[in-house]
Amino acid sequence: MAVQVTGLFQSTATGLIYQSPLLTLVPHLAYAGMIKMDVYIADNGAIGYENIDKSTLTYDSTITDPYSQLIDALDTFVIDNLKDANEINSQSTFEKYNPPAPEPTPEEPVVEETVGEEPTA
User: Fold this and answer.
1) H or E stretch including 37?
2) pLDDT tens profile 105-115
3) What sign for the dihedral angle of Cα 21, 88, 83, 53?
4) Secondary structure class of 121 (helix, strand, coil)
5) pTM score, two decimals?
6) Pick from 106, 103, 92, 99: which is nearest to 7 by CA?
7) Which of 116, 119, 36, 118 is nearest to 74 (CA)?
Protein backbone atom coordinates (compact mmCIF):
# COMPACT_ATOMS: atom_id res chain seq x y z
CA MET A 1 0.00 0.00 0.00
CA ALA A 2 1.43 3.32 -1.01
CA VAL A 3 0.47 6.86 -1.95
CA GLN A 4 2.44 9.03 -4.37
CA VAL A 5 2.41 12.75 -3.55
CA THR A 6 3.10 15.13 -6.42
CA GLY A 7 4.18 18.51 -5.11
CA LEU A 8 5.14 19.55 -1.61
CA PHE A 9 4.14 17.45 1.39
CA GLN A 10 4.30 18.63 5.00
CA SER A 11 4.47 15.94 7.66
CA THR A 12 1.71 16.32 10.22
CA ALA A 13 4.01 14.73 12.81
CA THR A 14 7.17 16.82 12.41
CA GLY A 15 6.29 19.77 10.18
CA LEU A 16 9.12 18.86 7.79
CA ILE A 17 8.43 19.51 4.10
CA TYR A 18 9.24 16.96 1.37
CA GLN A 19 9.21 17.20 -2.43
CA SER A 20 6.91 14.59 -4.04
CA PRO A 21 7.51 11.73 -1.58
CA LEU A 22 6.21 8.20 -1.83
CA LEU A 23 4.23 7.37 1.32
CA THR A 24 4.20 3.73 2.40
CA LEU A 25 1.13 2.67 4.38
CA VAL A 26 1.40 -0.16 6.92
CA PRO A 27 -1.84 -1.15 8.69
CA HIS A 28 -1.92 -3.01 12.02
CA LEU A 29 -4.86 -4.69 13.68
CA ALA A 30 -5.96 -3.07 16.90
CA TYR A 31 -8.82 -4.23 19.07
CA ALA A 32 -12.17 -5.30 17.56
CA GLY A 33 -13.17 -3.21 14.56
CA MET A 34 -10.22 -0.82 14.88
CA ILE A 35 -7.07 -0.42 12.81
CA LYS A 36 -3.79 1.39 13.46
CA MET A 37 -1.77 2.76 10.54
CA ASP A 38 1.85 3.81 10.11
CA VAL A 39 2.59 6.08 7.16
CA TYR A 40 6.29 6.09 6.29
CA ILE A 41 7.54 9.13 4.40
CA ALA A 42 10.12 8.12 1.78
CA ASP A 43 12.25 6.29 4.39
CA ASN A 44 12.48 9.44 6.50
CA GLY A 45 10.01 9.54 9.37
CA ALA A 46 6.49 8.35 9.95
CA ILE A 47 2.99 9.48 10.83
CA GLY A 48 0.91 7.26 13.09
CA TYR A 49 -2.84 6.85 13.12
CA GLU A 50 -4.49 5.25 16.13
CA ASN A 51 -7.96 3.78 16.32
CA ILE A 52 -9.26 4.02 12.76
CA ASP A 53 -12.80 2.68 13.03
CA LYS A 54 -13.50 0.30 10.13
CA SER A 55 -17.19 1.17 10.23
CA THR A 56 -16.47 4.83 9.41
CA LEU A 57 -14.35 4.13 6.31
CA THR A 58 -15.75 4.78 2.83
CA TYR A 59 -15.90 1.52 0.88
CA ASP A 60 -15.98 1.27 -2.92
CA SER A 61 -18.94 -0.96 -3.81
CA THR A 62 -17.44 -1.78 -7.23
CA ILE A 63 -14.64 -3.74 -5.50
CA THR A 64 -16.00 -7.19 -4.70
CA ASP A 65 -13.07 -8.71 -2.76
CA PRO A 66 -13.41 -7.69 0.94
CA TYR A 67 -9.65 -7.48 1.50
CA SER A 68 -9.10 -5.27 -1.57
CA GLN A 69 -12.09 -3.17 -0.54
CA LEU A 70 -10.59 -2.58 2.93
CA ILE A 71 -7.15 -1.70 1.47
CA ASP A 72 -8.78 0.79 -0.92
CA ALA A 73 -10.80 2.32 1.93
CA LEU A 74 -7.67 2.74 4.07
CA ASP A 75 -5.81 4.36 1.16
CA THR A 76 -8.70 6.78 0.68
CA PHE A 77 -8.84 7.56 4.42
CA VAL A 78 -5.13 8.45 4.55
CA ILE A 79 -5.26 10.51 1.34
CA ASP A 80 -8.27 12.51 2.53
CA ASN A 81 -6.79 13.00 5.99
CA LEU A 82 -3.35 14.15 4.83
CA LYS A 83 -4.62 16.30 1.95
CA ASP A 84 -6.84 18.27 4.35
CA ALA A 85 -4.20 18.48 7.10
CA ASN A 86 -2.61 21.78 6.09
CA GLU A 87 -2.36 24.41 3.34
CA ILE A 88 0.81 22.92 1.79
CA ASN A 89 -0.71 19.45 1.42
CA SER A 90 -3.99 20.79 0.05
CA GLN A 91 -2.13 22.19 -2.98
CA SER A 92 -0.54 18.83 -3.87
CA THR A 93 -1.87 15.76 -5.65
CA PHE A 94 -2.24 12.47 -3.76
CA GLU A 95 -2.68 9.27 -5.79
CA LYS A 96 -2.88 5.61 -4.87
CA TYR A 97 0.41 4.13 -6.04
CA ASN A 98 0.48 0.98 -8.10
CA PRO A 99 4.03 -0.14 -8.83
CA PRO A 100 4.80 -0.93 -12.47
CA ALA A 101 4.55 -4.54 -13.51
CA PRO A 102 7.91 -6.31 -13.54
CA GLU A 103 9.60 -6.71 -16.90
CA PRO A 104 9.57 -10.29 -18.12
CA THR A 105 13.02 -11.84 -18.15
CA PRO A 106 14.22 -13.31 -21.42
CA GLU A 107 14.23 -17.06 -21.49
CA GLU A 108 17.54 -18.83 -21.57
CA PRO A 109 18.45 -20.15 -25.01
CA VAL A 110 17.68 -23.78 -25.65
CA VAL A 111 20.80 -25.85 -26.29
CA GLU A 112 20.11 -28.92 -28.36
CA GLU A 113 22.17 -32.01 -27.67
CA THR A 114 22.72 -34.74 -30.18
CA VAL A 115 22.90 -38.20 -28.73
CA GLY A 116 24.65 -41.13 -30.39
CA GLU A 117 26.49 -39.20 -33.07
CA GLU A 118 30.24 -39.59 -33.37
CA PRO A 119 32.24 -36.49 -34.11
CA THR A 120 33.73 -36.51 -37.57
CA ALA A 121 37.36 -35.70 -38.16
Assistant:
1) strand 34-41
2) 777 666 666 66
3) positive
4) coil
5) 0.75
6) 92
7) 36
